[in-house]
Write a structure and sequence with these properties.
Blueprint: H1 4-17, E1 19-23, E2 39-43, E3 56-61, E4 64-73, E5 85-89, E6 101-102, E7 106-110, H2 117-129
Antiparallel strand pairs: 1-2, 3-4, 3-7, 4-5, 5-6
């Protein structure tokens, strides 16, 4: 559990240090992260335009940090240009979507690990065949 005040402290730490290391605790990013406890390096991100589809991000939601990938800017409920909502997704299950999050819930981006091209193709194809 990570309450919002601790998330803000972690975010300020990231602003100072530019990168922090965290541990993966779940299995929602299998096969990219194969073991619980795998270490990831999280880097600061300042603006939404820095994100590209399939970038791995860390964000705060439901009193915890989640490591999923960026899918798109939410086309609904974006009346606040300073805090737009975005859509993220896990790899496991591959067809799932997360609840939209606000940009201010984003902790940072993981740049040292990428989703492979085959998996990107498979996800994109499934999204066309089974749109949400």
């Amino acid at each position: 559990m990570l309450d919002y005040s601790k998330f803000i402290i972690l975010k300020k730490q990231l602003e100072i240090e530019k990168t922090i290391q965290l541990e993966v605790l779940g299995s929602s990013m299998l096969p990219l992260y194969r073991s619980v406890g795998e270490r990831i390096n999280v880097e600061i991100i300042h603006e939404l335009i820095e994100l590209k589809r399939f970038d791995i991000i860390v964000f705060w939601q439901n009193e915890g940090l989640i490591v999923h990938y960026f899918w798109k800017i939410n086309s609904f409920f974006n009346d606040n240009a300073k805090d737009p909502t975005i859509i993220t997704r896990p790899l496991n299950p591959i067809t799932a979507y997360d609840h939209p999050i606000h940009f201010n819930q984003l902790l940072g981006i993981v740049r040292d690990k990428k989703i492979g091209n085959y998996l990107k193709f498979k996800i994109s194809l499934l999204s066309i065949l089974q749109p949400k």
